[in-house]
Each structure stands twice: as C-alpha cells, then as structure tokens.
Amino acid sequence: MSLDQGKAPFALPKLPYADDALAPVVSANTISFHHGKHHKTYVDNLNNLIAGTPYAELTLGEIIKKSAKDEKAKGIFNNAAQCFNHDFYWHSMSPKGGTPTGKIKQMVDDSFGSLADFQKAFKAAAVGQFGSGWAWLVASGDKLKVVKTGNADTPLTQGLKPLLTIDVWEHAYYLDYQNRRADYVNAVLDKLINWEFALKNLG
Ligand code: MN
C-alpha cells in the first residue's frame, strides 16, 4: 500500500507478480500464506482498529506518522506500519532481480565501497536482527545506509527514506528454510533484489 493511499477501508494490494514467480528462492506456498494470510490480517486489523476514529480520515502515511507518536494507538501503528512494510517488501523483490546499474550503483559504491560490501552489511543486519523485524537499505541525505527495525517498526518514522527491505519475521522463510534465516537472506540478495524499485524510491 503506498503511503498516499487513502482512505479507509483499505484493501489488500495485489502482488506485483504471480505467487510462484519468485520460486525456488521464495516458494509459492510461502508467498500465498504470507500475502494472503499474514499481510491480509494486518489490513483487516487496521480497518477494524481505525473504524469510527479520526484515523479513518487519514492516508496510510498519515496514520503511520500520527500513531507513532500516540501511546494509545500502538495497535494502529503496528498494523499500519506492517501494511506499508509488506507492500514495500513485495516490490523490493522481482523475478528479474539482479545487480544495480547507473546512479544507484554509483551510490552503493560511494556509500559502502562495493556491491559486495553492501551485501555484507545488509546480510549482517538481516541475520543479526534479534527476533522479528526487517532490514532496510535507506537514503539519508545523499548517502545510503543499512538499518534494521524490530517487529513493525519502519524507517519512515526516523526521517529516513526506505529504498529496499527484507522481511525477517519467521513467517517470511520458515516454510522454505526452517531456521536457516541466513540462507533465505543470501538467496534473496543474490537473485531477487529489485534495484529498479530502489532507484525509483530515491526520487
Ligand atoms: Mn511478513
């Protein structure tokens, strides 16, 4: 769901590819449960939580920013952020994933040294996130950085511009890789990263 999507009730966005398009790195079974059950539940929960509240008048981006500062709206924040994080994750992968070129390649080289150094930093964040969460490539000014967030947290609330993400909640990989999170992260990094999406997000 894009940040300016509004307003409630929100709908589960369609995947940008078929359920089996990312196999064997991410199986159709995983995609089908992850999108059709997990992601859908976040959308349904968000709609239920905001119904009849001032949040129902806001776009998804506005809901995330407002609820992040509202102690009584933790549930709204968690579900709204997960709606954004998941849609962003689906687009961060592509069956035609590959290596960066042009402007984004130059920025990766300037910020990390090389593509391999970026991959090392991203893998360390994704594998090192304790428990559920996300690893991100973000832009901060004219530099790129790798950050990790726990549970539903999103770099949007830290003044960072997300470019790519990987979901490291167990539901993202357990059916395919069981406890081998590093194997899942390596395979996605090698085969599926959608650098065109990262470039588009740079703006
Ligand atoms: Mn997930």
Q: Overview of this structure, please?
A:
By secondary structure, this protein is mainly alpha-helical. It contains 8 helices and 3 strands; from the N terminus they run αααααβββααα. The protein has helices spanning 28-50, 60-68, 74-92, 102-112, 115-128, 174-177, 181-191, 195-202, and strands spanning 133-140, 143-150, 161-167. A 3-stranded antiparallel sheet has the order 2-1-3. A hairpin with a 2-residue loop joins β1 (133-140) and β2 (143-150). α2 packs across α3. 36% of the residues are buried.
Question: Keyphrases for this structure?
Answer:
203 residues; mainly alpha; 3-stranded antiparallel sheet; 8 helices; 3 strands; globular; binds manganese (II) ion
- Fraction in beta strands: 5-15%
Order of helices and strands: HHHHHEEEHHH
Bound molecules: manganese (II) ion
Number of strands: 3
Short description:
This protein is mainly α and 203 residues long. It has helices at residues 28-50, 60-68, 74-92, 102-112, 115-128, 174-177, 181-191, 195-202; strands at 133-140, 143-150, 161-167. The model has no long low-confidence stretch (mean pLDDT 96).
Write the layout of secondary structure elements.
Layout: H1 28-50, H2 60-68, H3 74-92, H4 102-112, H5 115-128, E1 133-140, E2 143-150, E3 161-167, H6 174-177, H7 181-191, H8 195-202
Antiparallel strand pairs: 1-2, 1-3
Bound molecules: manganese (II) ion (MN).
